[in-house]
Amino acid sequence: MADNENIPQVAPPSGPTPEPKPAAVAEAAQSTENTPKENNHDSNRSNTTPSSSKPAGGSTRGDDKPHKRKHTGFGAAKGEVPDKREQVAQNREAKRRRIIEGENGGHSYMSITFPPEEIAAEQRRPKRKVAVLIGYAGTGYHGIQINHKERTIEGDLFAAFVKAGAISKVNADDPKKSSLVRCARTDKGVHAAGNVLSLKLIVEDPDIVEKINSHLPDQIRVWGIQRTSNGFSCYQACDSRWYEYLMPSYSLLPPHPKSFLGKKIIESAKEKGVYDEYMSRLDDVKDFWEEVEKNDIKPILDRLDPSIKPEVLRKLYASVDQVLTDETEPTQDNEGMAQDVEMKDASEQSTAAQDGKPEAAKADSDTKMEGTSASDKLKDTKMEDAKAESKSKQDSAFTVQKSKDSKSKSDKDKELTPVELALREIKAAYVAAKRRYRVTPVRIQRLQEALNQYLGTRNFHNYTVMKAFKDASAKRHIKSFQVNPNPIQIRDTEWLSLKVHGQSFMMHQIRKMVAMAVMVVRCGAPLDIINQSYGPRRISIPKAPGLGLMLERPMFTEYNKKAVTIGREPIDFAKYEDKIKAFKDEHIYRRMFELEEKENSFHLFFNQVDNYRTDYFLWVTAGGLEASHERSERTERVPKALQAELGDDADGVEERGD
Predict the structure, then answer these.
(1) Does this entry carry the keyword Nucleus (predicted)?
(2) How many CB atoms neighbour CB 403 within 10 A?
């Protein structure tokens, strides 16, 4: 207290005499000194020494550090410094409540609330950092990443964790309380045979995996839960990822010569004097459409009533020639605008595909990562057996729905005019002809040469959204990209399997890589177009249907080496191989095949790309990149009719894990 003798005395105010401040200050200072170093941060905020207690000659170096205010000087906050963590928590909670109560009508897929008395009565149990190995079929889900508004894979998993007791009720209102992190983010409708979540769970129950799975739909499975180091993050620890992409082999057929893109390819090749060169790259398929017109379409036209034949031809080719207007909508003859819908209806005439919801199925496959495709060994006989099994498992609800669908279809048939019925038959013939196509080794080799152009570290700014050429994060490393040389046949359709192994992938990157390679092959374009796409010119690349994409599994090579030294189990899907194989056959591959048969997803995708009268995709012509539209700004308005194909209708869910 001797130091205070030199402080000038100030007359006390009138009224009761306050308690002496110096004693309180000394007591606070002593308390601060006795507090462990790691706790000083919070203590300093509440025990700041008043300026009146400082020595007259100024504080000595070091002595005043425990008493300094964090914010001083001009514009500094007056009074006690607020707790930043508390501020963040309050802001987060306010935003969460605003979304749930205001924007989402009081419902949330990522916030499960319980009455205070239930939370208070719940027994507290320790949480452990774990890796959760999962698989899922993405059909019907808005990707994996949990959010308040849409149904997601993580949303269903989080709810199952809570129901199984792996997440306590007090932590059920916010996934961040459990430190939820996903390894790879998958887009809407994309499947995963293997993916990983890391978070803190209550895992003392030996049957916790079975309990969690009991609260999940069949199309989402937890393979296993493994203890990890406390600092483990599956997002950061993942070295690379394997994806598989399945597509019908007819995707490699060239555009119809009467489509807009087909005409432009021929015109440009003749104009540049490279027509023979382009045709040589289409040698094995250059006569495909001519034969279809002669053998499949002409017989239908010949038997039409002469009074409706001119109108059928007019509408058939009017529906092919779609224009993008300034209003960003495609314009056609009004009666021809239902082309896509008619194509889906047409498929119903030639297939009895089911509704695409999770149903039982079987398909023998090989799941080795670096060997042949996981679907290579599928056989028609086993597929037919699976078809019979699946049919026998349909419940009465499905039967009722099927009868309703049949009735609806029958009513719609009654409304169709003779011209519309003829158009449907013609378009069904085109789809059937495509499905009969069998790819040649020459076409597969050409596709492999295109995929080889992706190997190494490349600038993929044109293969995603909102990435500039100079953005360092647009550079990604591709380790391998292989097409299996042995296609498989499922019912009427032949399928190709592509497998890509890379360190990480951006939003839509894989689907755009597939589309670029396929477009180059089917249009006879030079392979160098792919290398030019890594340059600064911003071009438009469509994204192939999400239906065919599946995350095979992430890899944790470096972490697994470390895990052995710290007594933790390596993260390896191999021990669950049999279960994963059966799951892929039943819930992923069959879903892909049946949805394609029912919805003609790949046919519709390429049909739209070929028939919109726009210069967005003319980089496949002999004019190269200069012939196509260059999007000058990342925020440039894209024609609405092309947003889905380009991926500019981004839903915020990514195929990445970087």
Answers:
(1) yes
(2) 10
Is 528 a known active-site residue?
A: no
CATH of domain 248-285+440-552+598-646: 3.30.70.660
Q: Could you count the other beta carbons within 10 Å of the beta carbon of residue 493?
A: 20
> What is residue 361's predicted lDDT score, i.e. its pLDDT?
36
DSSP 183: S
Phi-psi region of 632 (alpha: psi -120 to 50; beta: other; left: phi over 0): alpha
Can you give the residue ranges of every domain in the chain? Answer: 116-239, 248-285+440-552+598-646, 286-317+419-436
Alpha-carbon span 585 to 562, nearest angstrom: 34
DSSP 41-109: HHHHHHSPPPGGGS-TT-PPTTTTGGG--SS-STTPPPSSPPPHHHHHHHHHHHHHHIIIIIISTT--S
Of the candidates 156, 173, 187, 585, the residue annotated as catalytic is: 187
Q: Both tokens of residue 34? A: 């006795």
- Amino acid present at 49: T
Please, are residues 143 and 166 in contact by the beta-carbon 8 Å criterion? no
Which residues make beta-bridge pairs with 481? 500
Q: Say how far apart CA 241 and CA 145 lie, in whole Å.
A: 17
431 contacts 346 by C-beta, under 8 angstroms = yes
d(Cα 498, Cα 243) in Å, to the nearest integer? 8
> Is 141 annotated among the ligand-binding residues?
no
pTM flag (> 0.90): no
List, run by run, the mean pLDDT of 10-residue segments along the chain (658 residues): 46 50 47 44 43 47 50 56 72 67 67 90 94 95 90 95 95 92 90 96 95 97 95 94 96 94 95 92 91 94 92 76 44 38 43 37 34 39 39 37 46 75 93 95 96 98 92 96 95 94 93 97 96 94 92 94 92 94 94 90 92 90 90 60 55 38
Provide the CB-side half-sphere exposure for 288 (13 A, CA).
23
> Looking at residue 539, what DSSP letter applies?
-
Report how far residue 509's alpha carbon sits from residue 460's, in angstroms, rounded to the nearest whole number. 8
CATH classification number, 116-239, choose in 3.40.30.10, 3.90.950.10, 3.30.70.580, 3.30.565.10: 3.30.70.580
Nearest alpha carbon to residue 244 among 594, 512, 486, 481: 481
